[in-house]
Amino acid sequence: MLVVGASGNIGGSVARALIHAGIPVRAAGTDPAAVARALPGAQSVHLDLLDPTTFAPALQGADGLFLVRPPAIAKVGPTLNALLDAAARAQVGHVVFSSVTGADTNRVVPHHRVETHLAGSSLSWTILRPGFFAQNLADAYRTDIVRDDRIILPSGQGRAAFIDVRDIGDVAALVFADPVTHRGAGYTLTGPQALDFEQVAALLSDELGRRIRYEPTTALRYLRHVHSQGRPWVQAVVQTVLHTGLRRGQAERVDPTLERLLGRSGRTLTQYVHDNRDLWATAS
């Protein structure tokens, strides 16, 4: 199986779940040496979504493709969709695309265009639509937590059913083990409980032994804040739209699909924070 983004949170979790399941993995990235160090049980290959000449060599002989959109890529036509076209030419067995909740109807997010392109292709496919990631605490929110002991978001009192990407990896491995059963399916995946960010801050405070506060803000202020942290404007806009949507309850529903597929409850945010508490340690 060719796993795109194998050095990232989602792709790495998928690669590790596949390796654990005994499924051979070709881990793709722009730095194959770094990928090999991170995933010693996989074959590493060079794949750059901005360089179509790398597509065919990476796909050669692949039984399946796991695809995820890197946040920095907004133009999915010449990148992700072009890779899907190359996968069709290479007759890749099955594609699993990690999209986002609501992308089947939300034309604003880039994932919608990938879903549409995939559905119209000759490929066999399954779409995963996870909600808000527990790993956002170690990515989008980490700098504010470590530097200022705060979570600043335009989410009001909205709640999110945080999903641990390790569970996404387990679902992807399940699909690749039996692709016929899951062909043409779109699965909404969430964690087992919905929390607002006051609760998230309290959870972090309890685990870290210092007070973490939640600071609600406006969409415009958050957009500027995200961009000031070095994220491109397009990425900052998408991130702002997704978090503003929490005010309207877009991510609060706990969906039973993950538990039905895996036969167990998803990992809780409490468990994720406990397992990774060193990520938010301060220099002092």
Automatic annotation (TrEMBL):
<dbReference type="Pfam" id="PF05368">
    <property type="entry name" value="NmrA"/>
</dbReference>
<feature type="domain" description="NmrA-like">
    <location>
        <begin position="2"/>
        <end position="220"/>
    </location>
</feature>
<dbReference type="InterPro" id="IPR008030">
    <property type="entry name" value="NmrA-like"/>
</dbReference>
<protein>
    <submittedName>
        <fullName>NmrA family NAD(P)-binding protein</fullName>
    </submittedName>
</protein>
<dbReference type="InterPro" id="IPR051604">
    <property type="entry name" value="Ergot_Alk_Oxidoreductase"/>
</dbReference>
<dbReference type="InterPro" id="IPR036291">
    <property type="entry name" value="NAD(P)-bd_dom_sf"/>
</dbReference>
